[in-house]
Amino acid sequence: MKKEQIPNLLTIGRILFIPIFLFILTVGNSIESHIVATIIFAIASITDYLDGYLARKWNVVSNFGKFADPMADKLLVMSAFIMLIELGMAPAWIVAVIICRELAVTGLRLLLVETGGTVLAAAMPGKIKTFSQMFAIIFLLLHWTLIGQVLLYVALFFTIYSGYDYFKGSAYVFKGTFGSK
Q: For residue 76, what pLDDT is reported?
């Protein structure tokens, strides 16, 4: 295996962890199954950091990685949040805001590429958003409710703020859309 393939394999691995994570949460409704699911989620979350770090370190950034890495993050986090609603551990309205923001920013990324070939890289608020979401999920799954809930609201804040930040920085794409002033 070439080292150039390792970051993409980590991304694919993260995607493959999702059905295992979901299965464990679906069939087991005990603290033990939640701990196992948390470990799987944590390992998958670590691959998010590791694949990006290795791709930059080895200078092997690829189009597949640019597409699949953020998609894998979104699939993992959105799946976990939906399961947290099912388990009664997260309010549906917060998860709805998070999912709507993810879809809106994904649409913005596509629009930017289509209109000018610009790739919208992850900015620091977006990285904090992902980090805080992943930690909120981990603490909620471990039944550390108070810390999990605080982190969930921190994640909600950075979800909204980073979405605003991305759209503010890309407002030029919408210039003239609602009339000229």
A: 96
Using CA atoms, how far apart are residues 35 and 41, in angstroms rounded to an integer?
Answer: 10
**Could you read off the pLDDT of 109-120 as tens digits, one per residue?**
888 888 876 677
Tens of pLDDT, residue by residue over 65-109, are 878 888 899 999 999 999 999 999 999 999 999 999 999 998 898
Distance separating alpha carbons of residues 165 and 176, to the nearest angstrom: 20
Q: Provide, rounded to the nearest whole percent, the portion of the chain with pLDDT above 90.
A: 63
DSSP character string of the chain? --GGGHHHHHHHHHHHHHHHHHHHHHH--SHHHHHHHHHHHHHHHHHHHHHHHHHHHTT---HHHHHHHHHHHHHHHHHHHHHHHHTTSS-HHHHHHHHHHHHHHHHHHHHHHHHH----PPPHHHHHHHHHHHHHHHHHHTT-HHHHHHHHHHHHHHHHHHHHHHHHHTGGGGTTTT---
- Residue 45 neighbours by CB under 8 Å, 6+ apart: 76, 134, 138
What's the Cα-to-Cα distance from 76 to each of 8, 82, 146, 175, 176, rounded to whole Å?
16, 10, 23, 34, 36
